[in-house]
Amino acid sequence: MTDVLTGEEKLARLDLGQLQQLVGLVEYDASADPFPVTGWDAVVWVVGNATQTALFYQSVFGMDLVAYAGPETGQRDHKAYVLTSGACRFVVLGGVAPDSPLLDHHRRHGDGVVDISLEVPDVDRCIRQARAQGATIVAEAHDLTDEHGTVRLATLQAYGDTVHTLVDRSRYDGIYLPGYVERSSTYRRRTAAPRRLFQALDHVVGNVELGRMDDWVAFYNRVMGFTNLAEFIGDDIATDYSALMSKVVANGNHRVKFPLNEPAVARRKSQIDEFLEFYGGPGAQHLALATNDILATVDAMRAEGVEFLDTPDSYYNDPQLRARIGEVRVPIDELHARGILVDRDEDGYLLQVFTKPIGDRPTVFFELIERHGSLGFGKGNFKALFEAIEREQERRGNL
Ligand SMILES: [Fe+2]
């Protein structure tokens, strides 16, 4: 199955073994899948200032600027910067024309993810399946062509104002899409900086309204053929104040994993309620970036000023933690010093850490994840994590 590596993974010189370790890639038979998905294509953001955000992802997240579209290239409405790290691609959009619809989007939602776009081998087959299952098709299948070839695309509506653009770039060898020009970083990386801070996207979590989680699980099951991975309900992830429900769906090869959260009724406003209020509806809550050296990544990001959620000392001093996690690759003191959490399940363990929200609104944030066999999402850490989030909510006056 080496031939199923995506173009981005090959360019990033990742191999099958690394991807199995990094993101839990599994073998599966795409021929029987009515909606085969190869993997992620891009995470498309709308932000208040794409020019500065692109610099942020280069300097702080160590990403490479690879492509650009804007007024200088004939795109009058907005600027778009394409950044990559390993196989992960971000596209950052910011409105230029005063009447750009992107500015309206930003007014409603603040900085956030508008499009979780997916690479598929056959756009038309996916759209046929989506239509048959009653999905909302935002853009019918169409071609974009330039001197580098042709890309076939279509767009489906997902939760809130989020969409999934389906991309078949098998007949295209340009840098991103027609309309974009190659662009390289103007940012000069520090000499001691690691070559790359993360290699791939692991999962993207969606927050949806109370009572709608199962509808969206059903959407991904029925329309996109995703299967349910794990389930966390009720008391599993309740703290004294707030609760949420969460289910996880994944595509056939498990590259694309979508945990979906909804708020659960609790004594105080949950972090999901806070997100829904400040994002103005459902949206992408966090993106997990896969790294093979979370300690180096955290150190590099902290050195650039990224703020991570604090983990209480009690988390590391708890004798049950040591019993629960067993042997991990680094001493617990090293994890403690960086606030990195550990979780273990029957398949192995994972290390993870969460940033504070990256924008002005208490909405989207990042997770760094280093997997060692575990295909989970850190269920054993949810309580400690949510208590850390609640301390931040309280400081914002939103608990
Ligand atoms: Fe996560």
TrEMBL record:
InterPro entries for this protein: 4OHPhenylPyrv_dOase, 4OHPhenylPyrv_dOase_C, 4OHPhenylPyrv_dOase_N, Glyas_Bleomycin-R_OHBP_Dase, Glyas_Fos-R_dOase_dom, VOC_core
Enzyme class: oxidoreductase
Domain VOC: 39-169, 200-356
Entry EC no(s): 1.13.11.27
Entry keywords, A to Z: Dioxygenase, Iron, Metal-binding, Oxidoreductase, Repeat
Keyword Oxidoreductase included in the entry's annotation: yes
Listed cofactors: Fe cation
Name of the protein in question: 4-hydroxyphenylpyruvate dioxygenase
Lineage top rank: taxon: Bacteria
Family: Belongs to the 4HPPD family.
Annotated PANTHER family: 4-HYDROXYPHENYLPYRUVATE DIOXYGENASE (PTHR11959:SF1)
CDD domains given in the database record: HPPD_C_like, HPPD_N_like
PROSITE patterns documented for this protein: VOC
Organism: Microlunatus panaciterrae
One Pfam family of this chain: Glyoxalase
